User: Which sequence fits this backbone?
């Protein structure tokens, strides 16, 4: 699969470890652009967590004339990136991705649907299933406004 271009993001402003020179092949970034190219989901610092399990930080942003405005950037929840694609746009404003939250003996990997204007919804009982991404999946959800705490709690309890 050909990689989409990476937008120009100031990584000093996002959640995660400080970035410096990274050896080739150690970790990587990956972008998924909306169909209209006005929004992007960016997985960054994607690396192997254990035995073929890849996870990374992620953010979503609007892009206008090359300028990136970050809309959301969870600090506690990662994207699970070991299936390709790990993110899929449902329309111009909503996307689905598999999340990754490890707390104690529990690993949570539910599908989250994020709408860039309306908020997010975490699909219950999807931790052990493939990415849910039908085109109509996001139209009937009850979205809640994004906050880091609310998003983490929703993933934890899915």
Assistant:
């Amino acid at each position: 699969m050909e990689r989409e271009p990476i937008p120009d993001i100031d990584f000093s402003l996002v959640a995660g470890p400080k970035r410096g020179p990274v050896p080739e092949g150690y970790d990587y970034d990956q972008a998924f652009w909306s169909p209209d190219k006005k929004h992007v989901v960016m997985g960054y610092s994607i690396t192997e967590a254990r035995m073929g399990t890849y996870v990374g930080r992620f953010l979503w942003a609007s892009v206008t004339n090359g300028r990136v405005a970050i809309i959301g950037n969870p600090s506690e929840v990662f994207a699970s990136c070991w299936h390709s694609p790990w993110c899929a746009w449902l329309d111009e404003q909503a996307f689905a991705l598999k999340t990754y939250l490890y707390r104690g003996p529990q690993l949570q990997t539910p599908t989250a649907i994020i709408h860039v204007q309306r908020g997010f919804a975490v699909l219950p009982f999807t931790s052990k299933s493939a990415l849910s991404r039908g085109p109509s999946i996001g139209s009937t959800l009850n979205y809640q406004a994004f906050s880091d705490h609310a998003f983490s709690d929703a993933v934890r309890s899915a």
